[in-house]
Write a structure and sequence with these properties.
The chain has helices at residues 3-23, 41-44, 55-76, 102-108, 131-156, 181-189, 205-210, 273-285, 322-334, 352-404, 411-440, 445-477, 480-514; strands spanning 38-39, 46-53, 81-86, 91-96, 115-119, 124-129, 162-166, 170-176, 194-198, 219-227, 233-241, 246-247, 251-258, 265-271, 291-295, 298-301, 313-320, 341-349, 408-409. With 522 residues, it is of the alpha+beta class. The chain has three domains: 3-42 and 351-514, Up-down Bundle (Multidrug efflux transporter AcrB transmembrane fold), CATH 1.20.1640.10; 57-133, Hypothetical Protein, Haloacid Dehalogenase-like Hydrolase, Chain: A, domain 2 (2-Layer Sandwich); 190-348, Gyrase A, domain 2 (2-Layer Sandwich).
Length: 522
């Protein structure tokens, strides 16, 4: 046996063994380092969510942060303000105490990264986000939302989620096989903006609650929400400084654990180096004051700072269950969404449709496979049986590749498999017809096989490459189901080239290498 032939046989045997090994768990065999094939939403059921990012709220928050930076810049330059307020989604207004400071303030405000002076006169300075930059900020907000939601879903443990954008502000989230839909909605939809702000105990809280216009400009009115075992909710007002000391962006870790003082759960967190430094300095300067821990504009707790907290560690206590604490720790680790997201559509897909589709697909595949096997066997005899074996190996390898790549099999993906099998049949037909032509010309069996594969090779490559380009275009421009079709079709095409050209060729070469054939059953 030639060395090249032996190497091809070993390669074919190894790849077939690996594919079969990967497929065994799908048929109930428990083996290490392998898993079942992952089914898509249309085959196993799950949840389909359409979310909309509140871009206006995002721009408002961004403008507020820029406005806070403007206050800090002017304070550093010795410019005092009468007021600094946001006048629109991406517009703000500063009022100086002296018009003489206007030029100095305008020059200092050039340090702002995204807020620019747009007008005003005398003591008034108008600021705004440039139109082009606002559009870029919106695009980045949607991209960040996709990234944060993907991080949360990955930590939640959903296999092969599909998360993509639709339009300029909508997100499509598909969670196959989800077992706790409401918990998933809570995780995905929670903004999870964690802030640490000092309480303003010197301001008149009763007056601020009674008249919102009496709230100091540097403060904001929030509520501590508590719910007892009977479901009664109490909301306790608290005035806090608008500017946070530090936010959840400075967290490097968060974990849930039982409380040691009372029954319940808490979330421990750890700041990064810069966050720990800032938090340590703030708590050192404000010993004896209350520090509000705020999650999504709701006060979780407001303990008194007993001593400086310099180690960069802390905890969030509340009426948490174990799942609530674990979910809160999860979203804090994944990071806050850049803006609130609203659920536009929530569709729970049952697995019954998938079961029917799988059943009908299996029936259709078996019927089609039987017809192909019989036709190839009758028309091409022994060579047709060999082609049938190559088809089976092709299917096994394609499914094994799906498992290795952790790809998801969807209903359109099954269609891609069927189409790739059809192309495999077409490939064998091209080769066999060429071999027949060469035999009719009087060539020997070995020479006919050699010439048949060589002459059919160009047509086979042309057909497969053009189909592969089409599949690549479908994957790049298509959505979830279309991508599933493109993935299985691409894998089937690549593997088909291997099984149809290398696989069947190996058998032909092996037979002709053992003895001189005078007749070929084809």
């Amino acid at each position: 046996m030639k060395r090249g032939l032996r190497g091809r046989i070993i390669l074919l045997a190894i790849t077939t063994f690996v594919a079969v090994y990967c497929l065994l768990p799908t048929f109930g065999v428990q083996i290490p380092w392998a898993q079942k094939i992952t089914l898509g939403l249309d085959l196993q059921g799950g949840m389909h969510l359409v979310l909309e990012v509140d871009l206006e709220k995002f721009l408002e928050s961004f403008t507020d942060r820029q406005l806070a930076d403007a206050r800090g810049i002017l304070e550093r330059e010795g410019v005092t303000l009468v007021s600094a307020t946001r006048t629109g989604v991406d517009r703000a207004r500063l009022v100086l105490t002296k018009s003489a400071d206007r030029e100095k303030a305008t020059k200092a405000l050039r340090e702002l990264s995204s807020l620019e002076v747009t007008g005003g006169s005398g003591e008034e300075i108008l600021l705004g986000v440039a139109a082009g930059q606002a559009a870029e900020l919106r695009r980045n907000a949607v991209k960040q939302a996709v990234e944060k939601i993907r991080n949360r879903v990955d930590q939640f443990g959903v296999a092969e989620p599909h998360i993509t954008t639709e339009g300029d502000r909508r997100l499509i989230v598909q969670l196959p096989g989800i077992r706790e839909p409401q918990r998933a909605i809570n995780l995905i939809g929670q903004t999870a903006l964690l802030e640490f702000k000092l309480a303003d105990d010197e301001a008149n809280l009763e007056e601020a609650v009674r008249d919102k216009g009496k709230i100091p400009e540097a403060d904001q009115l929030l509520y501590d929400r508590k719910e007892d075992v009977r479901g009664n909710v109490t909301r306790t007002p608290l005035l806090v400084k608008r500017q946070p000391i530090v936010t959840g962006n400075a967290l490097v870790n968060a974990s849930a654990r039982p409380r040691s003082d009372v029954p319940g759960w808490q979330v421990d967190f750890q700041f990064d180096q810069e966050g720990a430094r800032v938090f340590g300095e703030a708590t050192t300067k404000n010993v004896g004051r209350r520090l509000a821990i705020i999650l999504d504009d709701t006060v979780v707790s407001a303990p008194v700072i007993q001593e400086p907290i310099t180690r960069g560690q802390g905890r969030i206590t509340g009426d948490f269950t174990d799942k609530q604490a674990a979910d809160l720790a999860l979203v804090l680790r994944a990071g806050a969404l850049p803006a609130p997201v609203n659920i536009v559509a929530n569709l729970t897909v049952g697995a019954s449709l998938g079961e029917d589709s799988i059943r009908q697909g299996i029936r259709a595949s078996i019927l089609g496979a039987l017809l192909v096997v019989v036709l190839m066997g009758v028309y091409y005899r022994w060579s047709g049986v060999l082609a049938d074996a190559a088809l089976i190996v092709n299917l096994v390898m394609t499914l094994g590749a799906l498992i290795l790549l952790r790809a998801t099999l969807t209903l359109p993906g099954i269609a891609g498999l069927v189409l790739s099998i059809g192309m495999a049949v077409d490939t064998n037909v091209l080769v066999f017809e060429r071999i027949r032509e060469e035999l009719r010309l009087g060539k020997t069996v070995r020479a006919a096989i050699e010439a048949g594969y060589q002459k059919a090779f160009v047509a086979i490559i042309d057909a497969h490459v053009t189909t592969l380009i089409t599949a690549a275009a479908l994957y790049y421009f298509g959505s979830g189901p279309i991508k599933g079709f493109a993935v299985t079709l691409s894998l089937g095409i690549v593997i088909n080239l291997f099984t149809a050209i290398t696989g069947t060729r190996v058998v032909f070469d092996w037979r002709t290498s053992r003895r001189t054939l005078t007749h070929l059953s084809i």
